[in-house]
Amino acid sequence: MQGPNGSGKTSLIRILCGLARPASGRVTWNDTDVHRDFVSIRDKINYVGHRRGVCDELTPLENLLFAGDLHTRQTHNDCLAALEKVGLGALSNTVCRKLSAGQIQRAALARLLVTDATLWCLDEPFTALDTQGRAIIESMLSDNAKNGGISVVATHQPLSLSGSNIKSLNLDG
Amino acid sequence: MNFVPFHKYGTPKYFYSWSLALRPWLGGACVLLFIAGLIGGLFLAPTDYQQGESFRIIYVHVPAAWMSLFIYIVMASAGACGLIWHVKLADIVARACAPLGAWFTFLALFTGSLWGKPMWGTYWVWDARLTSELILLFLYLGYIALQGAIDDRRTAARAGAILAIVGTVNIPIVHYSVEWWNTLHQGPTVSKLDAPSMDTSMLIPLLIMALAYNLYFVAVLFERVRCEILEFERNTNWVKELTRDKGVV
Amino acid sequence: MNDALNAARAVALRDLKRHLRRRQDLVQPVVFFVIVVTLFAIAVGPDAAIFAKIAPAGVWVAVLLATTINLDAMFLSDYQDGTIEQLLLSPAPLPLLVASKIFAHWCATAGPQIAISIVVAIVLGLEGPVVSALAATLILGSPILSLVGAIASALTVGLRGGAMLQALIILPLYMPTLIFGTAAMHNAALDLPISAEIYFLAGLGVMAVSLAPFAAAMALRIRLS
Fold it and tell me: What number is the ipTM of this complex?
């Protein structure tokens, strides 16, 4: 999803993942109304927004274990593996207050690997990431698509994903 | 029963036109009742043997106190309607009620205080009824502050509805405080089930004044709601046509 | 069901961990409480008899103010770092998670608060029955303050004018608890029974426990929509 600042990308993503209500109309996914039957599909949605959902006082590992607990129980090793995948293996026990913005962003996106969610709603996931980080996230998005999931991504930058079905939506101001 | 036509009259657009049509009737009836009530209360009702002439402030004080409780219930109910059934007009009505309710509460407290000085010898006493009425004033002010702090009107209305519903706990406390605690404030004179403890000649002007206050509330509420509707719906065609006709860009 | 309880426990443990890692946040309300009591003492002046009469009220008001100022800690940092949104999207029922947060906040703040209040009451020279009335009403009243405070905190989280607005909303809702708490202490000073006030506080507590988490959860949903 692309568009200039203020075009409503964030609002649209929040409506799609069930946080906000639309003024009119419905959102359905797999024939389930997202707002009316939210309870049945909550565990399939994952959201990483502007406020990333990473607590400064905890370590990335603790943040992931908490995210796992909120959805379905994940083991210690699963969380460590997720952190390795996003390149934070060595920093998994450092308090997030001491990490850079890019590292915190990676920790937030590691959450996507720790739940069973297949619908990913990402609002500007590439902010603060270096080229290596971008590559990791793009490979995660491709993997999600291969596993039959959907990723809704709002971004300024063009994506380069191999072999997946990319639909582009342009929002006017 | 066919609900569809009834539902139409609850939409902001239709509410705007039919409430505008009612305005002269409401205003006229209100003025007439005020005049009748004030003449009845200030001149025709006999002098109280215990309090003399100063009891006449009852005709301003008691209806104001009744209104302060009634408006809060209207506000909380409208808020609940907006919250549960997403009725837009209910949100607008709740928001518009709050300043009116606050002013009636203040009026009740102020006139009560003026009455307290000759009757009890003091402007204020911290008994159950006065304290709970003061808490009611603070609840109104908190509600107004909350609505003002949230920019999006819809979110503000829903947040305010929760606050109003939580504060409803205070209403029975205000009403029954004179029965549950030993207070300086006198007991209830007009109750739903018993015969009133006040003489008819004094009671009639009181009821007329209560009706007048109610009509005033309804008339002014409708005015405020109409203004809010124009605010809420400013992007719709019918509002644009209306304002264009009146020469407002 | 198991998952829901698991999530609730995770929320509580996480909050407690956060409180422990910022220990100065636990100490500041206690210091604030002592400062307010000191202000009271300075304002009343040197007359010991008058002060002895007002001290119980002063202690309760100081408890209220310290609790009100501390309410931010419940939701504000979670709102700012986006955790509230994660809670909203979790399959576990939100009122349960909110109740868990309130419980963690109460554990971290009420314990020191009650302890310091009793110490201050003894230091100020209040008599035995009054101090035990204070302890009893605080133990019953502090959950009510946390629960009702959570509603106001959830309604105003992240708004401009936040702390003042929160105080303006919460203090009228705190007044019944204050009325019964101080009535109990006044009765205790006169050697009268305080069972009526204790029952009322217990009743308010039951109402708060059963209703406040739902109201606070709805308020959070509204604020983040």
Answer: 0.88
